[in-house]
Amino acid sequence: MQFTEEVQQTLQHLKAQGKTYTQCVFLLAGEFGYSLPVAHRITEAVWNLDGNQQEIFHIPPGSSVACPEIDTRRHGASIPLSDRHVRVAFEQIAPRIVLLDDFLSDQECDALCASAEGFRASVVMSGNDAATEVDRGIRTSMSATLPSSNIFVQKVQRRTAELLNWPLQQCETLQIQRYLPGDQYKPHYDYFQPGADDFEQIVSRSGQRIGTLIMYLNTPEQGGDTYFWNLGIKIKARKGSALFFSYPDATTRSGTFHGGDMVTAGEKWIATQWLRTPPVPSTAVCDQ
Ligand SMILES: O=C(O)CCC(=O)C(=O)O
Ligand SMILES: [Fe+2]
């Protein structure tokens, strides 16, 4: 995604006038109609990297962190994977959001649902392992872990790793969520919150979360859209489709505040694949 010479010159001019970074971001958003996360990326690009070839990327300029990504530039609307062609239904550059159709066959959706056992109240992964009463109010669906020995789980995880160009060892155990009428998942971020009690321990052992792939295993009768609260984006849950988004900066500036709307009729089943960065050894934590 590119921005124009005019935008670049405007920013350079504002900077020369002594405007602050924040003022520039708001001006870009107000005057040119960019969403705030995009206005941030452009301001960063112009201020820090002298224009960054007038391109904006979903990864913050200057960041060296590797990120799961769907390379849509090399293909048309259909991405050929080893065992399946998936179709790009929608994509956004920053924050990076890609909606895919035909990611799973009906048979795979049904098999994943059938292999979910031992549903329990969902734990909100805020960096704290224990779900508090507050947490339970945020997410009312039930969760189950899918056995990684299951042949369908293995197939789907391999496909995910190929699609996102991300190592399997950095994919969490696949989780299923089941929403009944009245259930919802209030807006949240998926990354672990720096500052939470066990943040250092989690991240030093198994890395920070950097991306999410939500796979829709059925089509709810009513409600259950996934929405990005700050972006004005709503995605309908449709059996077999998948929603990818990433948050390489793991802060509120990632723009990925999202939730699952209340299911008002029928059920909603999803499988969530969270992607992790490599473990980040910390001097503050002594691993047993
Ligand atoms: O149910 C949804 O649509 C959202 C799920 C979600 O945000 C998650 O699993 O992290
Ligand atoms: Fe989430």
Structure description:
By secondary structure, the protein is α+β, with helices and mostly antiparallel strands. The protein has two domains: about 5-55; about 80-275, q2cbj1_9rhob like domain (Jelly Rolls), CATH 2.60.120.620. The protein has seven helices and 15 strands. The protein has helices at about 5-15, 20-30, 35-50, 105-115, 135-140, 150-165, 200-205; strands spanning about 80, 85-90, 95-100, 120, 140-145, 175-180, 185-190, 210-215, 220-225, 225-230, 235, 240-245, 260, 265, 270-275. The chain has a nine-stranded antiparallel beta sheet with strand order 1-2-3-12-8-15-6-5-4. The site of fe (ii) ion has 4 residues, from loops.
SSE layout and pairings?
Blueprint: H1 5-16, H2 21-32, H3 36-49, E1 78-81, E2 84-92, E3 97-101, H4 106-115, E4 120-121, H5 133-138, E5 142-145, H6 151-164, E6 175-179, E7 185-188, H7 199-206, E8 209-216, E9 222-223, E10 226-228, E11 233-235, E12 242-246, E13 258-260, E14 263-265, E15 268-276
Antiparallel strand pairs: 1-2, 2-3, 3-12, 4-5, 5-6, 6-15, 7-13, 8-12, 8-15, 9-14, 10-11, 10-13
Helix pairs in contact: 1-2, 1-3, 2-3
Bound molecules: 2-oxoglutaric acid and fe (ii) ion.
- Cα separation of the termini: 46 Å
| The CATH H-level homologous superfamily of the largest domain | q2cbj1_9rhob like domain
CATH topology of the largest domain: Jelly Rolls
* Oligomeric description of these chains: single chain
Into which percent range does the helicity of residues fall?
25-40%
Ligands: 2-oxoglutaric acid, fe (ii) ion
Look at the structure and give the CATH class of the largest domain: Mainly Beta
Roughly what fraction of the amino acids lie in strands? 15-25%
